[in-house]
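step: validate -> pass
step: tokenize input -> pass
step: predict -> running
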Amino acid sequence: MRVVTGRKYETRDGRKVRILCTDAAGSRCPVIGLITYSNGECVGYWNLDGTNNSMFDLDLLAPTEQEKITRLAEIVAELSAMEPPVEIITRGGAYMPPLAPDKESEK
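step: predict -> pass
step: emit ->
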């Protein structure tokens, strides 16, 4: 993998990262980004391949399409299991009514 600006990344431990630049001059780690924590953001540094020289958990990962689809399915299932069920409206305006409970799983 080669890190590029404008693409979404996460650290191995699941934190969101936004890349500020990939060409920092005079640095062993030319990739600079902001790591999202619960109380704000912190600067992080990486090699062009997304590895972090200090902590393995901070290595960058680009989510694959299948991982995104799997996570979306998990979120939809979690929302549908809520009481009362949650209605989902996508950014594009598509409406998804709450899923009916699975009769087999209630037995």
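step: describe -> The mean pLDDT is 81.
step: cleanup -> pass
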